[in-house]
Q: What sequence folds into this?
């Protein structure tokens, strides 16, 4: 951009401005670095964006045509789009603050340079709405994504949300435990009490599971009456955690509707089996689901542990260990 406007009627008089010269040289060097070397790390990328933001603003501050200079703020949309795609919301917020500050400075420059104050205000409002478009779109995208990953009835994650979170938890923690729940004979609840009461039971179960697990655990509703808990629990504690949550679901309250759950547990713990290959997230989820169906086929209100690591005996929550 600096090379294009240099020497034109709206460009800086005489020699190209310092910001334009630095912009052309740094842009050429960055293009060569991007083409010839591996993809930059996060720090390099942020340095590039910060330099581009500063140079864009300085370049248009030196133009004698102040209105044209203010219009150059739209170039910050380019860096804003890059930040929104490759970096965090905090980085985008910092970029947005710089963009709005640039809008304010360039608009004040119009007003103090003999221009119309109303024109300066109109330019400020127009440019502010433009540079704020990307953060607004990102917030909207986040809201839509959150809505698509959550269950509207229980406000837990849905299956798609779980499939996104499970790999992240497996990468973060060495030992990971997946616990699947299926409410026993839930159809009879709907048939006897109606779907409204059935929905209340589902919401109650969601609250009980969410209250019973720790902050590091994830709770999801993956089907009609099916729930999943994922937590960084080792093999030694996996069965007792499954039994504790099984009791939490069936805990009696002052209501005529009491439900129990069939529970399947799958755990991977490298401390128990250092040479065992780390299972894929889908495999861990499928193993817990299969164990849950075995518990249901055995009569329900039962915890079954899948043997991903050395064998663990099946155990009923009401039986002594």
A:
């Amino acid at each position: 951009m600096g090379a294009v406007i240099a020497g034109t009627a709206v460009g800086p008089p005489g020699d190209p401005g310092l910001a334009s010269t630095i912009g052309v040289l740094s842009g050429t060097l960055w293009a060569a670095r991007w083409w010839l070397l591996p993809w930059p790390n996060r720090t390099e990328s942020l340095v590039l964006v910060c330099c581009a933001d500063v140079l864009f603003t300085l370049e248009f501050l030196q133009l004698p045509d102040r209105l044209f200079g203010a219009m150059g703020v739209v170039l910050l949309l380019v860096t804003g789009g890059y930040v929104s795609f490759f970096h965090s919301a905090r980085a985008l917020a910092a970029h947005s603050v710089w963009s709005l500050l640039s809008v304010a400075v360039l608009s004040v420059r119009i007003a103090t340079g003999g221009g119309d104050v109303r024109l300066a205000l109109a330019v400020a409002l127009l440019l502010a709405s433009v540079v704020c478009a990307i953060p607004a779109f990102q917030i909207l995208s986040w809201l839509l994504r959150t809505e698509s990953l959550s269950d509207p009835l229980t406000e837990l994650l849905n299956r798609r949300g779980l499939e996104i979170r499970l790999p992240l938890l497996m990468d973060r923690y060495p030992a990971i435990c997946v616990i699947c729940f299926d409410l026993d004979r839930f159809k009879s609840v709907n048939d006897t009490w109606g779907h409204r009461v059935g929905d209340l039971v589902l919401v109650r179960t969601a609250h009980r599971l969410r209250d019973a697990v720790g902050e590091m655990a994830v709770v999801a509703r993956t089907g009609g009456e099916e729930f999943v808990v994922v937590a960084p629990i080792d093999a030694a504690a996996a069965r007792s955690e499954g039994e504790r949550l099984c009791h939490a679901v069936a805990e009696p309250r002052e209501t005529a509707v009491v439900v129990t759950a069939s529970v399947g547990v799958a755990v991977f713990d490298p401390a128990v089996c250092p040479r065992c290959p780390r299972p894929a997230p889908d495999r861990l989820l499928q193993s817990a689901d299969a164990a849950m169906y075995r518990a249901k086929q055995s009569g329900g209100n039962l915890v079954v542990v899948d043997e991903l690591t050395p064998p663990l005996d099946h155990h009923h929550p009401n039986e002594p260990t």
Remarks:
- The two ends are 74 Å apart (CA to CA).
- Strands lie at 176-183, 218-221, 226-231, 261-268, 303-306.
- Residues 311-321 have pLDDT under 50 and may be disordered.
- The first helix runs from residue 2 to 5.
